[in-house]
Q: What sequence folds into this?
C-alpha cells in the first residue's frame, strides 16, 4: 500500500449491536470514542473513574446518553471490575483507562504504576473464561519506546523503556498485554492487540499540561501561553485519527485474529512537528500571538524528539490519517471557540466526526 492510504470509515454494519466494553469512557479520548460507538449503534458499557474536573467533555457532551451502561469503577479494584466485565459479556474490549499525564506521573508514581500496569492486568485477567470475548485492543502510547533521541522513527519491534513513570508504566503495560495474549487469551480465541498512538489534539480536552488546552486557557484569559519546550517534536494528530485506527484494528482482528500484535498509529514520520510550530498554527487560527518561553532548567525530563514509523499499520490495516496537522489544529481551535461562544459540545463532536467521515 502507498502512503496515500487513509483509514477506512468504521463500519456501522459491523458495530451495530456489538457488545463493547470501553474503559476510560469519562476521559477525553474515551468520551469521543463513546460518542462514536453509540453513533455506530454499538451496545457500549463504559467503565471509568467519575469525571472530577470542570469543565469536562463527558458531562458537556452528555456522553452517557445512548450508553448501555456506565459504571464508575477504579481498574485497580480487580474484583469490582471483574464483576462489571462478567455482567457486560463484552465481545470487544477497548481499554483506554489510564493515568495519562507525564508530569502527574512524577508527582504520583505509585498510582501511575498501579493504574497503568496492574490495572491493565486486571482488565485482561477479567476476560479469562469470558466465552463471548473476541477482541481486545489495549491503548498505550507512542512514549513506550526507549527514547534515544536519535533521528529514526520508532518501529514496533524497537526496545521498550521510559524515563518518566508514565512512559515506563505504559511500556510495562505492553509486556503485560503480550503476556496475557500469549499465555491465556490467544488459546481462548481472543485476539489481543496494543495501540501506540501519537500525541492527540481535539476539542474538549481541558487537562492540565497539554499544549492546546493550555493555549486556549491562556488566550481566553488574555494571558500569553508559556512554553517549556518549544523545540520538542511529536507525532501530532487529531483525536479522531487514533480512534478510527482503534476501530479499524478491532474490525480487522475480528475477521483475522492473526493480526494480533502491536501497532503504531500516527502521521508519517516526516510529518512530526515541534511544539513551537503547532503553537504557531494554533495562534494563527485563534488570531492571537501572545506566547512566552519559560526557563526549563528546573522542569522534569521530557523527550526532545519522537516520531513513529507507521508502515506496519498502513500495510497491515490500511490505516493512515485523513487530516493533515494544519487541518487538525484549525478544527480543534474552531471547536473551542464555538463551544466558548455557546455551541453544544456534543453537536460539535458529532459534526467533527461527520466531517472526518466525509473526508474520505
A:
Amino acid at each position: 500500500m502507498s502512503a496515500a492510504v487513509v483509514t477506512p470509515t468504521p463500519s456501522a454494519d459491523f458495530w451495530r449491536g456489538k457488545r463493547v466494553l470501553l474503559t476510560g469512557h469519562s476521559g477525553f479520548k474515551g468520551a469521543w470514542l463513546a460518542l462514536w460507538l453509540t453513533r455506530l449503534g454499538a451496545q457500549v458499557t463504559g467503565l471509568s473513574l467519575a469525571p472530577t474536573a470542570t469543565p469536562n467533555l463527558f458531562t458537556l457532551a452528555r456522553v452517557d446518553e445512548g450508553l448501555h451502561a456506565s459504571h464508575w469503577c477504579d481498574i485497580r479494584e480487580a474484583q469490582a471490575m471483574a464483576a462489571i466485565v462478567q455482567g457486560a459479556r463484552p465481545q470487544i474490549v477497548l481499554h483506554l483507562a489510564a493515568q495519562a499525564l507525564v508530569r502527574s506521573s512524577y508527582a504520583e508514581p505509585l498510582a501511575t504504576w498501579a493504574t497503568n500496569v496492574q490495572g491493565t492486568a486486571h482488565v485482561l485477567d477479567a476476560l479469562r473464561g469470558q466465552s463471548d470475548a473476541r477482541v481486545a485492543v489495549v491503548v498505550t502510547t507512542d512514549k513506550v519506546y526507549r527514547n534515544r533521541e536519535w533521528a529514526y522513527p520508532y518501529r514496533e519491534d524497537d526496545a521498550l523503556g521510559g524515563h518518566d513513570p508514565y512512559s515506563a508504566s505504559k511500556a510495562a503495560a505492553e509486556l503485560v498485554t503480550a503476556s496475557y495474549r500469549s499465555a491465556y487469551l490467544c488459546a481462548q480465541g481472543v485476539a489481543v492487540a496494543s495501540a501506540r498512538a501519537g500525541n492527540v489534539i481535539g476539542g474538549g480536552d481541558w487537562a492540565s499540561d497539554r499544549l492546546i488546552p493550555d493555549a486556549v486557557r491562556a488566550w481566553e484569559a488574555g494571558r500569553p501561553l508559556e512554553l517549556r519546550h518549544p523545540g520538542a517534536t511529536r507525532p501530532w494528530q487529531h483525536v479522531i485519527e487514533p480512534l478510527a485506527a482503534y476501530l479499524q484494528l478491532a474490525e480487522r482482528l475480528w475477521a483475522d485474529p492473526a493480526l494480533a500484535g502491536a501497532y503504531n498509529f500516527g502521521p508519517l514520520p516526516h510529518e512530526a512537528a515541534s511544539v513551537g510550530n503547532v503553537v504557531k498554527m494554533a495562534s494563527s487560527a485563534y488570531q492571537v500571538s501572545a506566547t512566552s518561553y519559560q526557563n526549563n532548567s528546573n522542569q522534569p525530563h521530557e523527550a526532545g524528539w519522537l516520531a513513529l514509523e507507521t508502515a506496519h499499520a498502513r500495510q497491515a490495516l490500511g490505516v493512515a490519517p485523513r487530516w493533515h496537522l494544519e487541518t487538525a489544529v484549525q478544527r480543534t481551535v474552531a471547536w473551542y471557540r464555538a463551544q466558548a461562544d455557546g455551541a453544544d459540545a456534543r453537536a460539535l463532536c458529532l459534526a467533527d466526526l461527520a466531517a472526518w467521515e466525509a473526508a474520505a
Remarks:
- The chain has a mean pLDDT of 94.
- The two ends are 16 Å apart (CA to CA).
